[in-house]
Amino acid sequence: MPTPTYDLIAYGTTIAEAVNFDFTSIGNTYRDLVIVIEATNSSGSQTYIRLNSDTSSDYSRVIMTGNGSTATSGSTANDSFLPITSSTTGAFLCIVNIFDYADSKHKTIIARNNFAASEVDARVGRWGNTSVVTSVNIVTSGVWPAGASFYLYGIAA
Amino acid sequence: MPIPLGILAVAGAGAAAGGSAYDLLETTILSTTTASVSFSNLNTYSNYKHLQIRAVMQDNATTNLNRMDLQFNSDTGANYTYHYLNGNGSTVSSSAGTSQNKLQFFDVINGTGDTPRFGVAILDILDFSNTNKNTTVRCIGGGISSSENDISLGSGLWLNTAAVTSISIFGAFSYTANSRFSLYGVK
Fold first, then answer.
1. Choosing among A110, A112, A149, which should be mutated to test the B contact, i.e. which has the most B CBs within 10 A?
2. What is the pLDDT of residues B23-43, one digit of tens each?
3. Where are the beta strands (DSSP E) in chain A?
4. Is pLDDT of B144 > 70?
5. Most buried pick, A42, B42, B58, B137, via CB within 10 A?
6. pTM for the structure as a whole
7. How large is the ipTM?
């Protein structure tokens, strides 16, 4: 029997400049989480996430970026946060998938990031922690102007 | 859910009017190491326009760079074409295959010594029951283990206009226990 899913759990839009947005008290009703962000990176800033407010060096990432002339790939291990955008300036649409967020695996995260004016990227991240994800802290190293939107969806499996 | 100062937030939105457009159809979670996973009788889902597979997986290979393989309707003929773009943390590369006997997209990370580390993928099988088109697949996948990194984007084509009634997922390896393959229907 098909089960309706991809449910909107919570969302919010900034009404003034903001530097962070948190989804908290996330239940374990679903198998995967999807976060959609529509915002603008201010000069030289990037948007990143932390899970369960973990500031330890538990995050690793691999990134693949194309900017219209070159394609590059980079990686960073054992960081204290997981960037989900580059520091490219401009409006972006970012879709973040957090798989098996309530399972006892390290959490693998895939994100697709679209700066329509300058670049696109795909990235995979790993949170080296087997805890259930109960919160996602979304932070910018700059400032999001008013109108940044954040959506959290749950997908059953 | 606390609302930070300066945030206009609305939480707990319900399902939109008009019913669901994205449904969970089936899930397979492996209890033991398994060579292949199949979804069959997909003709019963012809009320959906597209299929999506969300996978969380490891392989049991002792070598790196082992890619997920797919076949439709058990077709082993040279009827598949694919392209993929992948980044390994140092370089970006692209590969393609034509007249292949399977689709192939992204690296499944190996779980040797990496029990809690799994790769992931999202595959969209578009217009899967439309008999006027060859079937197109797009995907994103990747993972990070202690020995390999991969982020990949891929597209593939099954050169057959038959409705897709089964999907076989396999590789030159087996998938380890706790790998998960979930099938969704999109209207």
1. A110
2. 999 999 999 999 999 999 999
3. 3-4, 7-14, 18-23, 32-41, 47-51, 59-66, 71-79, 82-83, 90-98, 107-115, 119-127, 136-144, 149-155
4. yes
5. B58
6. 0.94
7. 0.96
